[in-house]
Design goal:
There is one protein chain. The protein is mainly α. It has one domain. 65% of the residues lie in helices and 5% in strands. The protein contains eleven helices and six strands. Strands 1-2 form a two-stranded antiparallel sheet. A hairpin with a 2-residue loop joins strand 1 and strand 2. Helix 3 packs antiparallel against helix 10. The longest helix has 27 residues.
């Protein structure tokens, strides 16, 4: 059971590892230090352990529901201030990519230190970005170019008029229009492919996987396909997708715990018994 895949869609927000960490130190945790508890090695105890784990998961799910308004408010404020600072430094930040929590979880080696994982991911970042840039929609690019042209023309005319006569800036919403046009241009430029782009998905994905040390069989020789692109995009997501996941986590996490993790507690307990 992959706890980060729900109906084939990767969802692994920052709050889920925290909850799992809290759960791991509960009395029903399967671990006693680095070792599996003795009761998990006894087949007769599995039913009791399953019921206890279901109770704990249900408790966390209901607690998340009860405190949902406070958690959601905190998440909104935190995301807003983080996003404001990020956009101030990099206006095109939302169009950039990062490795998702799900991707980090899948490619991390057993007992690998965080800084070592980050080093591997950072070395692959350029190639991962270049690989996904190989795929673009011609129709989207045409629309993006035209919209960017119109937005640039409006912003340019207003900027020239403002330089000619600073009273233009006193007109209502002029600064807002210039700012919005600038944002639109940044977004549109992110949708336009590099004119010097060379089609070599196999080479780029090979560079990526050499650092990730993760190569599913179905990826081999299929780097040019949409299926592989979609699968890899779950590992290397746009930053706005990451922020959307974090914002939605207070809403979705209680339901994941109650309606997805809890019904699978028996499988979790059985996994510990069978594999440790």
């Amino acid at each position: 059971m992959d706890s980060s895949l729900i109906y084939g869609v990767s969802y692994f927000s920052g709050g889920l590892p925290l909850l799992l960490g809290i759960f791991s130190i509960k009395s029903t945790s399967p671990w006693a230090g680095p070792y599996l508890k003795e009761e998990y090695k006894d087949l007769d105890n599995l039913e009791t352990l399953t019921r206890q784990m279901e109770k704990d998961v249900a408790m966390y799910g209901f607690l998340n529901l009860i405190f949902f308004p406070l958690i959601f408010l905190y998440q909104i404020l935190y995301s807003f201030f983080t996003l404001s600072e990020l956009i101030k430094r990099r206006p095109d930040a939302l169009g950039m990519r990062r490795y998702s929590n799900y991707g980090r979880y899948r490619v991390r080696h057993f007992n690998e230190l965080t800084h070592e994982l980050n080093a591997r991911l950072n070395r692959s970042h350029v190639y991962a970005n270049a690989y996904l840039n190989q795929f673009y929609s011609t129709l989207t690019e045409v629309f993006a170019k035209n919209i960017a042209f119109v937005a640039g023309a409006i912003a340019g005319v207003l900027a020239i008029l403002s330089a000619w006569d600073e009273d233009v800036l006193q007109i209502e919403h002029v600064l807002t229009v210039i700012s919005v046009c600038g944002v639109i241009m940044v977004i549109c430029h992110g949708l336009i492919s590099d004119e010097n782009l060379v089609w070599q998905p196999e080479v780029l994905l090979a560079h990526v996987t050499s650092e990730l040390h993760y190569v599913p069989v179905e990826w081999k020789g299929q780097a040019h396909t949409e299926q592989v692109r979609r699968e890899f995009e779950q590992f290397f997501q746009l930053k706005w997708m990451f922020l959307l996941q974090e914002l939605s986590s207070p809403i979705l996490t209680p339901f994941i715990l109650l309606f997805w993790v809890r019904p699978n507690c028996r499988e979790l307990v059985r996994f510990f018994y069978d594999n440790t």
